[in-house]
Amino acid sequence: MKKSNLLCLGFAIVLIVTVNLVTAQAETAVSKKHETADIIIYGGTSAAIIAAVEAKKSGKSVIVVSPDTHLGGLTSGGLGFTDTGDKSVIGGLARDFYHRVWLHYNTEEAWNWQPQSEYGNKGQGTPAMDGENRTMWIFEPHVAEKVYEALIAEYDIQVERDAWLDRHKGVELQDGKIISISTLNGKTYFGKVFLDATYEGDLMAAAGVSYHVGRESSEVYGEEWNGVQVGVLHHDHYFKSDISPYIIPGDPSSGLLPRVSSEPPGKKHSGDDKIQAYCFRTCMTNHEPNRVPFPKPEGYDPMQYEQLARVLATGRKDWFQKFDAIPNYKTDTNNHGPVSSDNIGMNYDYPEASYERRKEIIAEHEQYQKGLLWFVSNDPRVPEDIQSEMKTWGLSKDEFIDNGHWPHQIYVREARRMIGEFVMTENELLKRRPTPQSVGMGSYTMDSHNVQRYVKEDGFVQNEGDIGVSTKGPYQIAYGSLVPKKSECTNLLVPVCVSSSHIAFGSIRMEPVFMILGQSAAAAAVLSIDNNMAVQDVPYSDLKRVLLQKGQVLD
């Protein structure tokens, strides 16, 4: 063969190899940008992880697309003193979670700071460590995260972290079905059924599903406890003494103190677009080897806490009321009193806000709450007995170690709520009306934190919105509250931002319930796929049978 022909042949071979290599690389790049599974779950909450486990146990492929790096939402984000209500109605994988927590605390290694016998085993109605039922209901944040990570590893679940839904053009819809979702990092996820397991309901909203933000008037669903709650004084979270809201006490011309609204609160039972306050559930300790002193936040302004100084000057002594004890000399510290960790009135735009704006809101909440801890620990206006005890407390050195020992999840008590096939209201929770097609149960008090701080007609300050109404025992939660209206989307389930009124959501919004509903939503998704039908058309008899087999408590 001539040399020229050999050169041509060699060049051709090199060209073919190069083309094949480039094609293979391109296909690999495309495959990395496009993922497919039977079920796509958006969110990293407790509901998301439990739903993923249920999907995998049922033989379906699943991808968790999580905007969060840490898994578990509030359950691993500081809320370790679990709001359980009647524990007997917590079944299925939710109960398995608390069983796994129990297994952890039955090891010597779990008690690295505190002897197990010294913990006291105090719970809510039943012991924190319920040996009879092999469950543990009160725990440290890192333990909850460890359990979720173990579940992900055990069931070999694919989790995409720090993956944020493109809320403007990232949801592809066709004939009332979600075909795919895309994230801001350029990846697209195709699925047969989708779950929105976020606290905010971003996927639901981007898919065009109806929802509500704020409080409905009591007339909308014929309720007694919805809407503005002017005049309702509850839970000790109100001003019991006459406190001036003005910079110079009694002088309106001096201007309002920070965090007091100049707007009228609205008529009792009227609706509004306001939401209950957020906070961080801080994990504190007074065990010196594990204590980090409270940091002074940048931009600290003591005037932000002037109202608290005035409250403490009246002799109020309940500052430490919600330093709830969890293992190893730590706390799950929650809001208590008229001025506390709840950042009242500063979150109204959070549900609909851009990611950038939400980060600003979260940062402002963090600065406020850190400043609050610094104020009580250091400001000379704080009574000496309270301040001296506060100085013994700090953040837990072995919690949230990659975030300055500060919780990675703000407590989104309420954001969007879907308006779906069925709307849960106080009438179902109070058993005034029957609940159709139960997929789980709740039992906690219908609980809303304060929504606004305003000036009364007498010129003194007061909080509004805090309310707690007993459900008078466990209640059922309808399957229709997990699915959108069929005319809007036929392959989406929403186990967190469920279809409910504001006051009903005040009870449903508990972490054990989110896990229960996450499992039930995934079980329904499996039946939808197997029967090639809309999620709204899943035969309830089949779903009920499956859920009972899996240990869910339905009545």
Please give a quick description of this structure.
The protein has 555 residues and is α+β, with helices and mostly antiparallel strands. Helix content is 28%, strand content 15%. It has helices at residues 3-33, 46-57, 92-104, 141-154, 202-206, 306-313, 355-378, 384-390, 426-429, 502-508, 511-530, 540-549, and strands at residues 34-42, 62-65, 129-130, 135-136, 158-160, 171-174, 177-182, 188-196, 211-212, 284-285, 291-292, 323-326, 330-333, 394-396, 417-418, 438-442, 446-448, 452-455, 461-464, 467-469, 475-478, 492-493.
Say what oligomer this is: single chain
Strand portion: 5-15%
Number of strands: 22
Q: What characterizes the major β-sheet?
A: 7 strands, mixed
Overall mean pLDDT score?
94
Low-confidence stretches: 6-19, 21-30
How much helix, percentage-wise, in residues? 25-40%
Could you say which overall geometry the principal axes of the C-alpha atoms support? globular
Secondary structure class reads alpha+beta
The CATH class name of the domain at 35-91 and 141-215 and 415-443 and 475-549 reads Alpha Beta
Question: Kindly, what is the distance between the CA atoms of the first and last residues, rounded to a whole number of angstroms?
Answer: 86 Å
CATH architecture of the domain at 35-91 and 141-215 and 415-443 and 475-549: 3-Layer(bba) Sandwich
CATH fold title of the domain at 35-91 and 141-215 and 415-443 and 475-549: FAD/NAD(P)-binding domain
CATH-level-4 superfamily name of the domain at 35-91 and 141-215 and 415-443 and 475-549: FAD/NAD(P)-binding domain
SS field, number of helical segments: 12
Rg over alpha carbons:
26 Å
